[in-house]
Amino acid sequence: MGPTATDTTARDGVAASREFVRAAPPPGGLVVSAVGYRTHGQRPALHRGLPSPYLTLIFSLDGPVTTGRTPGQATGPDAVRTDIVVGGLHQSPAYVVQPEHEAGIQLALHPLAARALLGLPAAELTGQLVTDGTDVLGRVAADVRERLCEQDDWRDRFAFLNAYLARRVADAERAGGVRPEVGEAWAWLARHRGAGTLRGLSAHVALSERRLSALFRAETGVTPKQAARLIRFQHAKSAVVRAVAADGRPDLARIAADCGYYDHSHLVRDFRQYTDVSPSAWVAEECRNIQAGGHTNGEDWDA
What we know:
The chain has helices spanning 71-74, 114-118, 133-137, 140-150, 154-172, 180-191, 198-205, 209-220, 224-245, 252-258, 264-275, 279-291, and strands spanning 4-11, 14-23, 31-40, 45-49, 55-60, 65-68, 80-82, 84-87, 94-98, 102-109, 131-132. The chain is of the alpha+beta class. A hairpin with a 2-residue loop joins β1 and β2. 43% of the residues lie in helices and 21% in strands.
């Protein structure tokens, strides 16, 4: 188990609390991070679920997770509500309703682990904002969620969930795997932190740019260029989060240079695409969550 971050305040005379529990991911690199969360007495709000180079798997331990592509959808009758959330790679924020109280476990999955953990390539998740977990994992996932809800200790929950995922991986060994060229292409992008060129990548895996892009997209749902931008943005966002968590103001010009952006304006443009707001507006919106440990999901691991 990793560190536990808690934040307790008072709202309208009622104690409000937030708890984030981070667990070391199981070996193998399929699960990038695992975070348990519980909040109580919070003012209802709308949270931006930002694009990242990871897939999302959430088991709610409370009511359904409510999401939408826009604030209006998330808070309206067309909102998506599910107790188990599976999310693919996406290029714009997903809006998540944060009720007065909620609890769950959120996993960040490596996109090339989708076949082993979810039973399908990540590309099959790109058509929808989120997918009901039982549609992907089967009805047994509902039983897993019920067992997680019955347990009181975070350590027991993570151990039970890891055992369930390990069984899925063992069952998937008989199924087809990811093409080695695609696996190496993702590893190359991760090593370069999204700053490499498509020409350099295609030469590295000995495929034409067109062939590589087709294979890569068929597996992940995004092109190599889109994946590179997601990886680069993840590193930039992580640097912003670390600066804010240390009670400092992020130096965006330095972060842009360190993360391979042309300049500060280039970073701001990517931030606006992936968050719908400027970096400073996002920091102001998420400052309390960051300081409470709510942005630790995958921050310290390579893509």
